[in-house]
Amino acid sequence: MSFRIVRQSKFRHVFGQPLKREQCYDNIRITKNSWDSNFCAVNPKFLAIITEIAGGGAFLVLPLFKTGRIDVSYPQVAGHKGPVMDIAWCPHNDNVIASASDDSFVRVWHIPDGGLVRPLVDPVVELIGHQKRVGLIQWHMSANNVLLSAGADCKIFIWNVGTGEVLSQINHPDIIYDCCWSWDGSRFVTTCKDRKIRVYDPHTGEVEHEAMGHEGTKPQRAIYLRNGLIFTTGFSRMSERQYALRSEVALSEPFTLEVLDISNGLLIPFYDPDVNLLYLCAKGDSNIRYFEITDEPPFVHYINTYQSTVPQRGMGMMPKRGCDIKHCEISRFYRLHTSGFCEVLSFTVPRKSDQFQDDLYPNTVSDVPAISAEEWVDGKEAEPILVSLKEGFVPSRKQEFKVTKKSNILDKMPKQSTQVASAASDKKMDELLDEIKKMKGTLIKHERRIRELERKIEAPLASVEPSPSPVVPPSPPPHISGNGVIPE
Known about the structure:
- It is a single chain.
- The protein is mainly β.
- It is 11% helix and 35% strand.
- It has two helices and 32 strands.
- The N and C termini lie far apart (144 Å).
């Protein structure tokens, strides 16, 4: 007689429920780009979706309340000259979003409250450094205005968005597939075309740990968990989709390595650090698998699968501070369909009580930065500031996002000295103009003199009738004496 023991978990009955169609978003020209990006980013204020546009790159920013059918003439953020590859909302300011494009630029935009009323083409700051396509951007969770970007030029830049300057530049061995900050931002992990997983120190750019990842040649994904472990997704040699849990000190020896199925879509992980839930979805799939990560073997426990009849084009996950706590919503996803429809999918845990559920909603990441960019540059590290959701989330009071670029050397000159330099320059210019006029006058005089001399020479030649001259054979060259005199 056999007994089946079911693992006890408060998330065993989590289920996903799509919202009604009028509560979703329709008539969106979703991008047809084949890049492995989510194409969607969301925060408690706005929903951003990369769209298809002729002659450049653009993305749509919608307030969450603007549901239903979207007008085709709705204003977009359209400042890029190439297709937009990735977008990411700032974790410390819900009105600031960064975008990476095929035109090698990273731009940061400020979205006004209530959304756009006209197309936005002027970014707050433009980050110039990459030489090729920029396919990945990610904000630092603790440090204010610190942004990471990775491009096809095999370079990783870490920017201070507040000043528009480069904090660090790291050369990567090959094309970068994925990149993710650690929980406190002291390290970041990358996956690469050479199938290796690398852990970097962002301050020095040195590789702290390196090992082979999944054996397949297709792209891989990697994310840092809150406990410092690394979760990766990839393919085996037989094109089987896999996931693995690794320690950064022993990347080549995963704690667990499981095969899910055989398919072409890359598994994209979405992580909830508050309750250690992990969601796996892929482009072209119509399902979402979710797991719970614990300290007990096999560490990654399968919970359930959300099944749908429509494949997804992209996916975005709402931060916990934007979820509906009253209805025990633990996560909310925005699924993009190829038909131009954005479906809102809510994952809830059924509870009979209407009271606040402490076990479902521990303290979550707030929108207040723990440290400044200058402190991070000086080597200070800090975990994100957490806030309780028991009384509901109250956004922090923030000022308008501003960029203070390094001033030009001309701006540092005193106003008086600048005026003196301008006056001296004008005087010099007048002297040069006078000299040019004098030279032109001299040239005109010489031209007149040359014409007069030519007329004097031509006049006697025209009055004399030319007569035929006998042909004289050429004489031998004269002999020149030693004193230089030609004898008669």
